[in-house]
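Ticket #4471: complex job returned nothing on first submit. Input attached below:
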Amino acid sequence: MAKLYGIGVGPGSEELITLKALKVIENAKVIVAPSPKENGQSAALNIVKNFVKEDTEIIVKQFPMGGEDQEDKIYEAFKTIEARLHDGLDVVFLTIGDPFVYSTYIYLLKYINEKGYETETVPGITSFCASASLAGEALVIGDEPLLVLPSTRLDTVKEDHKYLVIMKVYNNEETVINFLEDKGYEYVYVKRAYREGQEVIKDREEILKNKDYMSLIIAHKN
Amino acid sequence: MAKLYGIGVGPGSEELITLKALKVIENAKVIVAPSPKENGQSAALNIVKNFVKEDTEIIVKQFPMGGEDQEDKIYEAFKTIEARLHDGLDVVFLTIGDPFVYSTYIYLLKYINEKGYETETVPGITSFCASASLAGEALVIGDEPLLVLPSTRLDTVKEDHKYLVIMKVYNNEETVINFLEDKGYEYVYVKRAYREGQEVIKDREEILKNKDYMSLIIAHKN
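Support reply: We reran it on our side without changes. The output follows.
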């Protein structure tokens, strides 16, 4: 019976994929890669393009990040994948970062599991681990918790959370920085870790000038 | 000037190291690997042993997980590393999982930075991403936060935290499970992900029988 592989390809550099991901991609008959836009580029596919064999079928499907048609589009991608699996072809689905951290792969996996196909997920380097390495900043140490949150959920940060990762800060930079300064956190902004244009910025005004879609903030307090 | 590489080698399988980690390890003149015990085995070294070249110097240093002599031992390891760097030799330091998630690498890095040596950190697959992949369970989706915590810090879990990873559950299994059941979480226990003896367990009684040092719990509530 054919199998779906869900592969985390890490934050952006081909050097940060795992040996397991490399092996699965090199042996793939069919690769399905997500793109946020209809007929758009797939960042996940770009990361691994040098490892894809010439005779591998490549299918880029739209996976919107939220929005009204998200569910329909994921179902469409599922139907495409299911058709290949039904023909006995293994399918490799690529996701940026790790497949189980803020990814739409989970919805796709649910459909595939319901049909009884075998699945295997390969973990990937998360954007926050990549950003910490680039910045040389700890994410969490000792007996403390780590809270990872979207910038729209500052309400979930409590007094006893000393280590934060704030994701998706785009267009919300000033609110996040004001919140962190008010609560006594030190912070570092990491832009496009392991991609072209990567940068680590600590200065408030520089951060506000450097608005970028692929960015996050690592914050600590004592 | 010589350089320290801090390399995350992932949860336990050599297939889950990155291409970058492979390259650095294959080219290493000196590898320093941590062991929890004096003259003990290094799990991090075991993961990559098939990739280490014959003429690479291998040094296993004790890095206790907490305890009174932790600071002294880390300083000792730093002195060993500094001596090699001073001789112009690059040093590769290995850490299980990711170097910036619950790792003593951060203390070592501080000493090295103070001496002005160049450093480069390579992120690794975390135990919780590996466990999620093995279990086929999402860590976090949508606009929710993810709270990662040691089992001794259940006090940091608040009403609005729907997605949890509870680390270091060893010897604290019953307290954790009672807490999760009381608060309405579903949970899965993942033992030794990507190591010999790996297992995914959902049954309460089975979990309590399966106490294991290398284990964590992934929990969700609606």
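The longest strand of chain B covers residues 3-8. Closing as resolved unless it happens again.
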